Amino acid sequence: MYISPPKDWWDAGDPSLPIRTPAMIGCSFVVNRKFFGEIGLLDPGMDVYGGENIELGIKVWLCGGSMEVLPCSRVAHIERKKKPYNSNIGFYTKRNALRVAEVWMDDYKSHVYIAWNLPLENPGIDIGDVSERRALRKSLKCKNFQWYLDHVYPEMRRYNNTVAYGELRNNKAKDVCLDQGPLENHTAILYPCHGWGPQLARYTKEGFLHLGALGTTTLLPDTRCLVDNSKSWLPQLLDCDKVKSSLYKRWNFIQNGAIMNKGTGRCLEVENRGLAGIDLILRSCTGQRWTIKNSIK
């Protein structure tokens, strides 16, 4: 949620002007004490580290406030050499992010689950009781998250067209997953499954099959999508918006079924070459099946 100043700020030619921001770092800020208390301070249900600044940014905007960066302000932040809390900071960052999503993000909460490759139902993380925070939001008559996107953070990418996401596995090679491989090769590969960003597949209502960590804003490149250019036996990973043929970037896929390109009729399959390894290829369909980790109902 930290983005470059908007064009109108640059055009004004005054580097001292305040910059509207959707959120800010949580370690140093100035706030109206009365307003801060009215909106519930920081969420006391968050644990250890991470997410409190995002919760505050969304809450401030939705509940009648605003947030700015003051370029001429000077704040010293003295950080410890070693943080005194639990070493598993990543877990708590994830937990707190889910808490923000469940209280404030409405129909867009799925974005957080997709980004962390967690199922929407029973993600296996106890986020604590959020009923008081939801009641606070209701009592303050805060706006919905769509308003935040429309008026505060229009640069945020939207992924509401997602129907399934997570690792993609083939029934003929279950220990490897679809992977984006080296970015410069523009070719999808197979790689031992780990479920991190390079293996985050996302299948959409339009039939696009994206691969890689979610993009953050429209100011930066989006996740590339799988393409059958009808010539190569290798599946290409390209910028979807730059692929002229709509059908070459669209795929038919259902859980535990084939992945077939709508333009060429070829299927995404694996070929076991023994000691030489396993290849990811495009060819006439032979009945191979794919499963994706999570689905959105």
From TrEMBL:
Main location: Golgi
Protein species of origin: Homo sapiens
Subcellular location: Golgi apparatus membrane
Protein name (database record): polypeptide N-acetylgalactosaminyltransferase
Gene Ontology MF annotations: carbohydrate binding; metal ion binding; polypeptide N-acetylgalactosaminyltransferase activity
Its membrane topology: Single-pass type II membrane protein
Top EC class for this record: transferase
The family this protein is said to belong to: Belongs to the glycosyltransferase 2 family. GalNAc-T subfamily.
Required co-factors: Mn(2+)
Superkingdom of the source species: Eukaryota
Ranges for domain Ricin B lectin: 164-293
Sorted UniProt keywords: Disulfide bond, Glycoprotein, Glycosyltransferase, Golgi apparatus, Lectin, Manganese, Membrane, Metal-binding, Signal-anchor, Transferase, Transmembrane, Transmembrane helix
Pathway: Protein modification; protein glycosylation
